[in-house]
Structure formats: structure tokens, C-alpha cells
Amino acid sequence: MNNKKLIILGIITVCMIAWAIVQAHVANRPRAEAQKSASLIQGLDPANIGSIVLGTGENEVTLKRNGRYFVVTNKDNYPAESADINNLISSCLDIKVDEFFTDNPSNHKDLGVTEEDAKYIVKFLKPDSELLAGVIIGKGKDQGQGAFVRMIPGNKVHITLKRPWIKDKALNYIDRELVSVDRKNIESVTVSSPDETYTLNANDEGEGIILANLPTGKKLKDGNSEAVFTALNNLSFEDVMKAPATGKELTFNRQFACRLKDSTVYTMKIAQKSDKTFITCQTEFTDKTPVTKEEGIVESEEELKKKEAKLFAKDKAEEFSLKHNNWVYEISEIDAGNLTKKLSDLFEDENKGEKKAG
User: Fold this and answer.
1) Cβ contacts of residue 89 below 8 Å, gap of 6+?
2) Which helix (H) or strand (E) holds 23?
3) What is the pLDDT of residues 316-357, one digit of tens each?
4) Three-state SS for 268?
5) Span 59-68, average pLDDT
6) 22 compared with 327, residue with greater pLDDT
């Protein structure tokens, strides 16, 4: 073999070794690195969204833009939480795909990307209800993290890098907390029903509870009285509806009033029908003394803070009433029990549970 052939063979050998190294490097790279992923939905401007539709048929939920915010049409246009709406839009825009699978409509049903078989459906509509963009999320891909998705309109099905999870219930987009009152700020609680009225007061130290007109020989049940006294701590609702139409069907003959030390009074009017309990919420700031500042008088920092706190409490009460005045809320059985507990459930014999001497 002459020198020329040896040189050619050497060059071929070096090239083959280099190619093997490259192939081994590519093979060892993770899939996400080896193949560039892309966003499924591109070019969607959230400012152009007039409404968002989740699901179909009886399970369809519509979130409609109302000025700067969205409302949940399934719940009589109750205000939606902006953070939840933003998270929904972001979740859809963040869907990444790295593999085209099929564009044959006959495969859609098996992949779960028809509207009837989908895991999730999200449609973004213009104010005139014209479709801007949408996504149908179907079955998972084997045992992997991805899922089959189809952008609508269109027939193309892709596989996502991660399986998207979408909140698709109306209450997922509503702040269900009505009020959360700090126990140390409570002055008294009054519970009224057609049969009785009683008041629980905070003692001077602010930790214990005093029942007005506690019968002789009786003592408070700490657990029950505390549950009533703190009933507005993290009070939330199970469902919500407009007040005028619903109010005609309910009798609000019970009341729970919580008076705070800053002169705020929360009043819950209560109606019970079948096994459900409904409430309306009102707030009043009872200190009607105007906050003024006299010219030429230098006020102390403490006095200024008191005035600031009063104005803040007044504004907070007005804001609460404005938000909740026109709504009826269904609450849980546990919360209903705390708001309507009978007087006889609050006390027991003083000597109950004591060991007999001897």
C-alpha cells in the first residue's frame, strides 16, 4: 500500500472517530436540549380577550371581562380574582410542545382532543365572541409527563413537555373568604333568633369570654363559646348568588353581630332552608364623630395615628359593604353551627366533671 492510500485511510479514520464522538454527545443530551420546544399559543395579546370559556355543555364556565376586571357569569357575574385570571392565561401561554403527532381528525377521539373527550378546554374570545385562540388538552402520553394537545381552530396535535393542569370550576376564580376578624380586636358578639338573644363579651384582659346574664350555678363551655366568639375568623362561603331574586325565597330570621373595638360592626343575617344555610353581610362604622384637624394646633404622633386608624377602619367598613351588600352566600354546616348556636349549648353545671370527695 502506497503512502497516498495510507494518508486517505488516516483521514477517513479521523473523520469517523470525530463523527462517533458527535453522535455519542447528541445521544446523551436530554430530549429538551436535543429538540427545541415552542409555545403552543403564540401572539395572543391578553388585552384583546373579551371572555374566557372553560369546558363545554353543563360544565361550561365563562369568565367575562367587565371593564378592567373579569366576572364569573355562572355565578350571577360575581367578581373574579384578577390573580386567578392571570394565572389561567399564563398557564395556557406557557404550554410548550416539542413533538408534532398528527393532523388527522380521525385520530382526535383516541387522543382525547375532541371537545367531547377532552380533559380540559380553554377558549379565548374577543369581546364580540369571535374565537381568538383555544386549546384542547387530551390524554397523557404513555407514562411520560407530556399530554396530547390541539390548538383550535386547527387539526394539528402536539405533545407537550409537561402535562398542563387547568382550574375549570367557577369557584376556582372567586375569592371565597368573606371576612377574617382578629380575635383580639373583638369587643362583643350578639346572636339572635326568633326564640332568644344572647351576648358574649371579651373580658378586660381580652382573652377570656363573659356571657351576659349567665345563670347561677352554671359555667361557660370554653370550646363552644370560643367557637361562637371567633365565628368570623376566616369565614368563607360555599356558593354565591344575587340577593334580590334569591332573597324572596328565604327568610332571614336570625342574626349574628360582631362588634370590634374600633367601632366596626359586622352583621350577618341568616336564613336556613332544608339542610343549607345562607347569609347576607353588612358592615357599619358606628363612630360618627368626624375626624378634623384644627389650624395652629400641633398634634402628637399618637393622636395622629389614632385618627389614621379610625379613617382606615371607616374606609374598610364601607368597602366591605359595597362589595357584599347585593349578594347571598351559602356557608358550610360548621360555620352555620357557630353563627346560630343556641344559648343552652354555651354553658353547663359548675360542678360537672369534678371528682367527688371521699
Assistant:
1) 46, 49, 52, 124
2) helix 3-27
3) 999 999 999 999 999 999 999 999 999 999 998 887 655 544
4) strand
5) 95
6) 327
Q: How far apart are CA 167 and CA 120, in angstroms?
A: 9
Alpha-carbon distance 88 to 54, whole Å?
Answer: 10
Q: 369570654: which residue's cell?
A: 209
Residue whose grid cell is 503512502:
3
pLDDT at 212: 82
Question: Which of 288, 289, 281 lies closest to 319 in space, CA to CA?
Answer: 281
In this structure, is the dihedral angle defined by the CA atoms of residues 235, 237, 243 and 248, taken in order, positive or negative? negative
pLDDT confidence band for 10 (50 / 70 / 90): low
CA 324/CA 80 separation, integer angstroms:
14
CA distances to 42, 91, 102, 182 from 95, rounded to whole Å, are 10, 7, 18, 41
Q: What is the mean pLDDT of residues 64-79?
A: 96
Find all residues with CB under 8 Å of 146, minimum gap 6, and list them.
Answer: 99, 140, 159, 160, 161, 162, 163
When pLDDT is averaged across residues 245-251 and rounded to a whole number, the result is 76
Are the beta carbons of 282 and 321 closer than 8 angstroms?
yes
C-alpha span between 300 and 289 (Å, rounded): 19
CA distance linking residue 330 with residue 337, whole number of Å: 13
Backbone φ, ψ for residue 325 (5° rounding): -55, -35
Distance CA 257, CA 190 (A): 5
The string of pLDDT tens digits covering residues 117-154 is 999 999 999 999 999 999 999 999 877 789 999 999 99
Whether 105 and 126 have beta carbons less than 8 Å apart is answered as no
From the CB of residue 221, how many other CB atoms can be counted at a distance below 10 Å? 14
For range 13-34, the mean pLDDT? 43
Cα–Cα distance between 287 and 307 in angstroms, integer?
Answer: 12
Nearest of 260, 286, 257, 267 to residue 187 by alpha carbon: 260
Q: Give the distance from CA 181 to its chain's centroid.
A: 19
In 3-state terms, what secondary structure has residue 356? coil
